[in-house]
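dumping this here so i dont lose it
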């Protein structure tokens, strides 16, 4: 019962340790890859909303 009443966040407040350089490099490369994928997805999908809006708009026909 005593264990349930302890705050788990107090255990996190301990001293921070340095991360091994190999692990740090892997994490940073994974983050860079995820960012690249997100930017590429935005590049190819950002104009779909304006494209669909332009297709669905009914313009006034010009009468001479």
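and the seq i came up w/
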């Amino acid at each position: 019962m005593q264990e349930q009443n302890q705050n788990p966040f107090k255990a996190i407040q301990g001293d921070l340790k340095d991360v091994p350089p190999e692990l740090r490099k892997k994490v940073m490369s994974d983050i860079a890859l995820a960012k690249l994928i997100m930017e590429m997805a935005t590049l190819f999908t950002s104009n779909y909303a304006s494209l669909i809006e332009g297709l669905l708009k009914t313009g006034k026909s010009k009468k001479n």
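The radius of gyration is 26 Å.
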